[in-house]
Amino acid sequence: MASITIRNLEEDLKANLRIIAAQHGHSMEEEVRCILRQVIGQRAPLEKGLGSKLKARFEDVATEAFSLPERQTPRIANFD
């Protein structure tokens, strides 16, 4: 991946960027990447968490609830 440095950025612009990034739950770097994607015309990919990925992967087979077996008292090993 490439990186860029932006020099001579006005302080009020940087402060506004920090506020907008916080409102979106992003770092300032991620907010700039999202802005650049929008301006350039690329769709910003939404990173999904593990739970969302698993749900999407198994949603066609997990239409009914799974029943869990009853808990049993664990056996304790006796090494005497």
In short:
This protein is an all-alpha fold and 80 residues long.
Mean pLDDT, all residues = 84
- What structural class do helix, strand and pairing data support? mainly alpha
Helix residue percentage = 40-55%
First-residue to last-residue Cα separation: 61 Å
Task: Walk me through what this model shows.
It is a single chain. This protein has 80 residues and is mostly helical. The protein has 3 helices and no strands. It has helices at 11-24, 28-40, 50-58. Helix 1 crosses helix 2. The termini are far apart. The mean pLDDT is 84.
Entry keywords:
single chain, mainly alpha, 80 residues, elongated
Task: Please specify the SSE layout and strand pairing.
Blueprint: H1 11-24, H2 28-40, H3 50-58
Helix pairs in contact: 1-2
